[in-house]
Structures are given as C-alpha cells and as structure tokens.
Amino acid sequence: MRLLLTILCIPATLLICRAQETIDPDDRNKWKLAWSDEFNYNSRDELLLNWEAQNGTNSHILCSRWEENVEVGNGVVKLVNRKETRAGQDWTSASIWTRRLFKYGYFECRYKYASETGTNNSFWIMTRGQDSDPKTGKRFEIDINEGHYPNEVNMNIHNWSDISINSEGKQTHPAYHKEIKYDAIDFSKEYHVFGLEWNENEVIFYLDRKEIRREKNSFCFSAAPVLLSLAVIQWAGEVTDRIDGTFMEVDYVRVYQKKSDCLVTIMGMGNSLTEGGATHQTYLYPLRDMLAAAGYKAGFIGPRENTFNANPVRHCGFGGRTAEFLESVIDSIYRIYPADIVLLHAGHNHFDTEKPVSGIVAANRSIMHKILNINPDVKIFVAQVIEVGKLPKYSYIPELNDSLATMVSAFNDPRVVLVNQAAGFDWKIHTIDDKVHTNDTGAKQIAQTWFDALKNP
Question: What whole-number distance in Å separates Cα of residue 161 and Cα of residue 388?
C-alpha cells in the first residue's frame, strides 16, 4: 500500500556502490525449510484449507477481491483480474493469506506479474486486524514486493500503530518506501524470486536471492501471515480494459529458518486434557517449563490457544471431542502446523456401552498415517491414555491402552513412540472433583511422563 510516503527511486544500474550480498536458503548447514506451499492442489477448496481468501470491497483500490478470482492448477496459483462490476466496483481481483502465522526467517516467493500497467502484484507480511496490539513493537506491514508491470519492484515498511491526522486533515502513518526499476527485465515474462530475511534486528530484501535493500527492524516483532495479492490501482500506470483476464502467477511460497534460531516445534493433540480450561490446567504449561529448565529450545504450535495463563500456549486440543473427530481434521490442521513432534493423547469422550475401542484405535492409526504422509521427519508420541474415575463410562480405557500398545508395536516405525501415560497416574490424587480433569499435580504428572519420553525417545 502507498499512503503519503516518502519515495526513494533508485535505478538498478546504481546499485553497484556496495558488494551485492546473496542468500542461499538451500544451504542446509545454515537454513531449515520450515514451511512451504508448492501449490500442488486439485482444487481451490484444497488451497483454502491452508489459505484464507478475501471476499469483499476495498476503498483504497479500484477492485473488490474474491475467492472466485483464485485459480489453481498445474502446480501454480493464479490471481486473476476481471472487468466486472461487483459490490460497487468495476474490477475484481484476488487476495489470499496463510492461515498459519510466522515470525522471523527467510521468506521467498517465485512469481510473475500480471502483464498490464495499472496492476499491483504483491507478496507481503502484515499483522492481522483481529489480533490484539503487539506487546512489543507495532502493528506492521512489510511489502516484500509490490510489483508494477513491467519492471518495477516496490518495497514498503509500514507502522500501522501510530496513525495521525496531518495538517490537511488526512490520515497518515510512518512508512518507508523504496522503488527500483529494472530496464532489462519484464517481470511478467519469466518467474523471478522475491525474498525477505526478517529477524529481530533487520529486514533485508532480495531479488533472485541478491540483496537489494536493508533496513533496521524498529517495530516488526510480531507473528503475522504471508499474503499474496493482486489489485487494480491508480498509481501503477494506465488502467485500461486490457487488464481484463491478466493474472499474477505464483509458483511457490517458502519460509526458512536459520538453524541457529530454530525451535523444535511441538503440537499437543487431544481433548480437554490437552486444551485445559478455567478449572483445570493443561499439561502443556508444566511441560514447557520442564523443557526450558533443561535448556531445550521448544515452541508449541497449533490452531488453538489456551489463555488461562499470562503466557498462552498453542495446541490442538478440542474439549469434548473424540479421536475420530481429531482424525477428521488432522490433515488440514497439520498442513498448517507441521510440528516436529506430535504428542497424541486421544481416547476419552466415549461411553463403555458404545464398545468404542476398535474405532479409537483405527482413528489413532489413521492420524499417524496422515501426519507421516505430510511430514516424513516427524516424531509422534502416542499415549496410552490416563485412567480416570468416571465409571462405568470409561471402563473401556484399560482395554483401549492394551490395544494401542499392540497397534504401535504392529506399526513398527521408529518415528512412532508409545508413551504409557496411565502408569503413575492415579485419578484419586491427580484429578479435580469430576474425577477426569487434572489438577495441578496431575498436569505435572502427565508433563513429566511426556518429558521423560522426549528425552529418551
């Protein structure tokens, strides 16, 4: 976006006053591929399991943007401009953003511009409006590239927290812009790679893995999604009917982390014992403390967040849900949150009269298969679940735990580890009055069992 910016325009031929730094994220000694999307989808619906799409109008540009303008096929995604009146605007286009949030690393996208002036072809990062104000830094936007046909690269850094009104009565905010024109390049003809290294100290912009801009990072310290957007705009050249049908074509998006900065990511998966609540603590808090005290660099990820603590923890716990439910959602969740380690504790929320053991075991087995198919390097710790005092409802748990042990043994895969959470857990000591959910001592007991297993997989 461009709003009352100070513009610095530098011809590419003048970028020779300093040696051009390069980056090689394929160097596995320095970088780890943390997340990628190669866009090998069969349909838009599959894409939208990992991305969200705008469906609505925009007051600052000439188009509304809709998921119908996102086309998927042949290993690419296309954001398409159309001359059509919708929601009161004369053009439509598209904008999508990752469901997963990222903080720091090297971000890279390979794409081509739409082949007409008046189009804005964007790869960017921006804090979400629905999130609370950052505890450190500001709400921000980093435009890795707002590309204008045929040869412009535009890089912006916006501070969206400090909005003020200028002497003309217009809103303004701190923003830092740099534009480069490449006389010998038509960015709509061939793919080019646009990149950003973002860390606590700097933001460094790259074109085809060669540095083109470096700035101090003064306020971009929060996790945010990655966005891909196409727009019809007034400030990128003449707007004509030739824009109709043009598209921004994206080959891939990849996010790398420096190995020196890498956290081992852990996802706790299960029901309310994993989720926690107002009356009972999740085991994830004491486990996080144990790992930190032992010097392990670990981060907990997942689609949900426990907020019953001053320092929230993310997870994949769904209170009241069964293993079968988890099996039905794990594919889409794990593609967004591909944790290095999964702690699977799933088996409650059935009645003994249902004879549920075979179904629970089948669901656990399918969960394991789906996760391993997405990430062959994952480590899955499968729990024999805690025995609780709510009987006869949970009378099936001992049989279930024997069957889970048999299933993991038959699975015969070193990436899958059986963890006996039932051993050492006494519901008379470790649960609250409902005889199911853990008190603080019980949460620490479960955490200790996970911790011991993680140390000695």
Answer: 49
If you average pLDDT over residues 189-204, what whole number do you get?
Answer: 98
Long-range Cβ pairs for the range 168-173 (8 Å, 24+):
170/4, 171/3, 172/3, 172/4, 173/3, 173/4
Q: Which residues contact 275 (CB under 8 A, 6 or more apart)?
A: 282, 304, 306, 315, 317, 318, 319
**What type of residue sits at position 452?**
D
List the single range of 162-171, 323-332, 350-359 with lowest mean pLDDT.
162-171
Those residues with Cβ within 8 angstroms of residue 412's Cβ, 6 or more apart along the chain or in another chain: none
User: Residue 49 has which token pair?
Assistant: 């399991």
Distance from C-alpha of 384 to C-alpha of 31, rounded to nearest angstrom: 36
Q: How confident is the model at residue 19 (pLDDT cuts 50, 70, 90)?
A: low
β-bridge partners, 384: 420
Residue 283 and residue 268 in contact, taking contact as beta carbons nearer than 8 Å: yes
pLDDT band with cut points at 50, 70 and 90 for residue 425: very high
Which alpha helices (H) appear in 231-283, and where do they start and end? 272-275
pLDDT score at 115 = 98
Neighbours of 426 (CB within 10 A): 13
| Across 180-194, average pLDDT | 97
